Amino acid sequence: MARLIDVEAPTTLSGYEAFVHLAPAVRELREAAQRLAPALAGRTLWMVSSTAQGGGVAEMLPTMIGLLNELGVTTRWFVIETERPEFFVLTKRIHNLIHGAGEPVLTAADRELFESVSAANAEALGPMLAHGDVLALHDPQPLGLAPLLRARADVRVLWRCHIGLDEELPQTRTAWDFLRPYADACERVVFSAPEYVPDWLEPRSTIIHPAIDPLGPKNHDLWVHRLTRVMMNSALVHADLGPVLTPRWEHVAGRLMPSGEFGPADANGDIGLLSRPIVTQISRWDRLKGFAPLLDAFALLKRRLDEGDLDDGDPIHRRRIELARLVLAGPDPASIQDDPEAREVVEQLRSAYLALPAAIQDDVALLTLPMASREQNALMVNALQRASSLVVQNSLREGFGLTIVEAMWKQIPVLSNQRACGPRHQIRDGVDGRLARDPEDVHELSTLLDAMLAAHAQREVWGLNAQRRAHADFLVFTQVRRWIELLHELVTDDAAST
Ligand code: UDP
Hints:
alpha/beta; eight-stranded mixed sheet; seven-stranded mixed sheet; globular; binds uridine-5'-diphosphate
C-alpha cells in the first residue's frame, strides 16, 4: 500500500552557500524562513504524490523537502499506491484531458475507482496526521484524499497542480467537472501559470513557477575537463581526442546513422560538439515538442544558404551557418517501450532524416540518451546544453519548459515561440532570447535561426539576461521561499479562524 519515502537531501544550504553566486539567494531564503517558519512549528507538511521516481515532481521533491526541513519546516513525503493498475490508467486519462487530449468522457465507474483508491490511501495516511498538519497534494492522482482527510483530521489542505492548458475545451471541462468536488476541499491551489487556473478556483489560487536545482547533475557547472570527460564517456565526442580519467560508460548515447540504424554516437564521425556552432533541442519524443518542424527549418536554413537566400555579406557568418549542426536529443526509445507515441515520433523523425540530402544528414545528429543511470543521463543533457550556441524549445504546447530554464541558467539563449503558454512566461522576446510567432512556420523558424546565429554579440546579452532571470525566478530557492510564504498564509488563516 502507500508508503513514506525517506528523503536524502542532495545538497544542504551550506553546500549551496559555498558557491559565491548562490550565496545571496540562500541568505534571502534563510531570512524569509527565520521570519515565517516559527509560525509553522509543531506542524508537519506532508507532500503527497503518486510516485517516488520518474517525472518532474519526483525529481524536484527531494531537494525541496531537504531544504524545507533544514529551514525548520518539518516535511515528509508520502506516495500513494494501489494494487489496481487501472487507477493510473484513469489518472493518465485525466492528465491528458487537462492538456486537451482524449475522449472527453469520465464515467460514474471512473469516479468509483478514483474514490475507492483515494479512500484506501486516506486510511493509510490518516493515522499519521496530527492536528494542524498541512497536506500538499501534487497533481490529480492524490487529490481525492482532500475531502476524506479534511473531514477526518483537523488538517489544512493545499493542491499543487503542475499541469494545465491555456484554453477551455470539452476535454478540460470534463476533467475539471470530475475533479471539482475534491479540489473544492482544498483551501489553496497552486498552479504554474495564471492561464491554467479554472475560474472557480481563481480566488484560492497562487502561482509558483517550477524550478531547477543549480547543483543537480543536470545543471551544475562542468568545467572544461569534466565536460570533455562526460562527452567522451558517453560517446558524444569521438574517443580519439585523447586519454581520459574514467572509462567509457556502459550505456552511451546513440545516434541515427545514414543507414537508418542507431549506433553509438561516435560511430560515424564526430558530431563536432566541441568546435562547431550547435543548435540543440532536448525533449521527450512527443509530437507536441515540435521536433519535426525544427528539423525542417534547419534543413531549409542550409538550403537557403546554398541558394543565396540568406544575407551572407559577412563571410564569418556564412562559415558559421555552413558549420552549424542540429542536435535533436531525447530518451533512449528502449526505455520508453510502453510509450507508443514516442516510438511513432522517433520513427517519423527517422524518415524525415533519411529523406534529407547526405550533406544535410551529416549536419543533423538525432541522439538517444540512455536512461539506465539518471545521473549519467542528466550529465549528458547538461553537457549538450553547455555545448550549444542556441537551445531551441519548439513546443506547440508547453506548460512550463524546464529545458528552457536549464538553458537559461547556463547562459544559453533560447528560441521558443509565443503560441506555447509556458515559454511566453519564461522568455521575454528580444531580452532573454527570441520567440517565434508560430512553431510550425518552417520559414520563420529558419529565418530566426539565421538571425540568432548571426547576432553573436547579442547572443551573449540574451544569455546573460536569461541567466539573471533564471537566477531570480526559476531556482529552487525562490520556489522554496514561495512555499514557505504560502504555508505561512495558510497557518495565519488558521490562527484567525480558531
Ligand atoms: N530530459 C532528460 N533526458 C532526456 C530528455 C529530457 O533528462 O533524454 C529532461 C529535460 O532536461 C527536462 C525534462 O526532461 O528537465 C523535461 O521537462 P520539460 O518541462 O522541458 O518538459 P516535459 O517533459 O515535462 O513536458
